[in-house]
Amino acid sequence: MLRRTDGTRRSVAVMAATTAAALTFGLAACGGSGPKNKDGLGKSAAFSVKDRKQFPMLSGTTLDGAKLDMASYKGKVMVVNIWGSWCDPCQQEAPYLEHANEAYRDKGVQFVGIDTRDNTGQAQAFVKAKQISYPNLVDDGNETLLSKLAGITSLASVPSTMIIDKNGDLAWRALQPVSFTDLSTALDTVLSGQ
Asked: Which of 52, 62, 38, 31 is nearest to 152 (CA)?
């Protein structure tokens, strides 16, 4: 840091600017901003069967240290949620996701979380506090898993939720927090084959 005769004022100004920049990034990364984000993707969308893109079958380590390969869920409808314990909207939507997980488990739906930009201990505490029972992959600090989702979802929107059909294609996506009603309506449509 540069030292000047008005060093205290300079330090306060630098801290204020740094804090403002961090808040701006945090708000943009948590919940997105505006109707479209920088990737040009809208907030939520359902895709017709003919317009669906293949979803990459991710694999890695879960928060509990187990190995998970999403390819093992082939033939099931999957719900993939990108979250972080630091994200307030993620905390708000977590009970809805777990409720949907419980409601759709016997209908052949598999939920998978992807924890990103997080501290492992805080993420584990989040999962325990929110009583999340489905597996959660850990995206490393380099966003290795998320980089595989470029063009599928916004890498800047946390939370985001995607429904993958039985063929492994992206059927629905929300780049914002979801409610149980929104998610169950979308799941019912995908499960019906639409």
From this structure: 52
pTM of the model: 0.79
Q: How far apart are CA 176 and CA 29, in angstroms?
A: 11
CA distance 138 to 160: 15
Query: Is-contact 112 134, C-beta < 8 A?
Result: yes
Residues contacting residue 23 through CB under 8 Å, at least 6 positions apart: none
Report pLDDT digits (tens) over 93-108.
999 999 999 999 999 9
**7 bridge partner residues:** none
Q: Strands 77-83 and 67-69, how do they pair?
A: unpaired
Distance between CA atoms of residues 110 and 76, nearest Å:
7
Strands (E), the chain: 44-46, 59-61, 67-69, 77-83, 109-115, 136-138, 160-164, 170-174
Band of pLDDT at residue 141, cut at 50, 70 and 90: low
